[in-house]
């Protein structure tokens, strides 16, 4: 019986193994091309340090904004029964499937010098957003916020609504129920959403290069640093790619409880 089952799985094992190979082989190739003995030297290149520092600053700022605006949004989506809620959820998740370059163009049309908001901002304050560090943060928020909202909403949706009713009977208002009851109970979901959103912000490329450009020390984040170094210093690009691969592994390790029994 067991032999027949294993034999029956063979037609599935072959394409499944090919799928794993298509994903794992490029990562193994990256590891094989690293000059391990010279790795500290390559990591000390200016493009590596500057881009990593800028990514640390911009992703930190991004996460602060995502926490402040994304958490209430996730709560409202989880608790709202309005017929327009599903449409709001769809709008929030559009960046998940939108090509990053298209997102960059949309940001440029919004915050550019002739944009809907950017034009008014320049006329009234003289400030311009595109090709600045602020533009990098806006691009990262645009692509990272949906990951956080969807993850946290799922955690909040799993909360029993009787907790809300109990808090109300004890005199707690909506804000107090949200901060004192809901948030402590969904901290694992918030942590998971934060990890996903931060990783997405760290890896953002298309919207950033379209909206913010690639200026060392100002808008050249780690992915843009890899792209810039690939032609002039391939080993520096490989070293920086290795750092980002390790970050991805750490994030996946932190989220292992979401897919491991």
What attributes does this structure have?
about 260 residues, mainly alpha, 13 helices
Describe the structure.
This protein is mostly helical and 261 residues long. 78% of the residues lie in helices and 0% in strands. It contains 13 helices and no strands. The two termini are 27 Å apart.
- List the total number of helices: 13
Report how far apart the termini are.
27 Å
SSE order, as H and E? HHHHHHHHHHHHH
Low-confidence stretches: none
Mean pLDDT: 88
What characterizes the major β-sheet? none
Please state roughly what percent of the residues sit in beta strands, choosing from under 5%, 5-15%, 15-25%, 25-35%, 35-45% or over 45%. Answer: under 5%
Instruction: Return Rg in Å.
Output: 22 Å
The counted number of beta strands is 0
Morphology = globular
Q: Percent of residues in helical segments?
A: over 70%
User: What structural category do the secondary elements indicate?
Assistant: mainly alpha
């Amino acid at each position: 019986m067991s032999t027949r089952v294993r034999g029956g799985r063979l037609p599935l094992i072959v394409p499944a193994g090919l799928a794993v190979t298509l994903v794992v082989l490029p990562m193994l190739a990256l590891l094989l091309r690293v000059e391990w003995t010279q790795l500290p030297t390559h990591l000390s290149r200016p493009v590596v340090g500057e881009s990593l520092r800028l990514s640390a600053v911009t992703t930190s700022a991004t996460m602060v904004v995502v926490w402040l605006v994304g958490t209430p949004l996730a709560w409202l989506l989880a608790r709202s029964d309005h017929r327009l809620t599903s449409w709001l959820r769809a709008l929030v998740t559009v960046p998940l499937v939108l090509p990053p370059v298209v997102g960059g163009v949309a940001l440029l049309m919004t915050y550019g010098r002739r944009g809907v908001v950017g034009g008014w901002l320049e006329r009234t304050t003289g400030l311009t957003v595109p090709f600045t560090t602020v533009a990098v943060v806006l691009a990262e928020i645009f692509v990272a916020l949906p990951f956080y909202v969807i993850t946290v909403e799922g955690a909040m949706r799993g909360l029993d609504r009787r907790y809300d009713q109990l808090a109300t009977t004890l005199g707690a208002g909506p804000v107090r129920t949200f901060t004192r009851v809901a948030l402590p109970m969904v901290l694992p979901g918030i942590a998971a959403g934060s990890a996903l959103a931060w990783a997405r912000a760290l890896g953002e490329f298309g919207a950033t290069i379209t909206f913010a450009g690639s200026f060392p020390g100002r808008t050249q984040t780690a992915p843009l640093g890899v792209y810039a170094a690939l032609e002039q210093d391939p080993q520096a690009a490989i070293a920086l790619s290795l750092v980002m691969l390790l970050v991805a592994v750490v994030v996946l390790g932190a989220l292992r409880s979401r897919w491991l029994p």
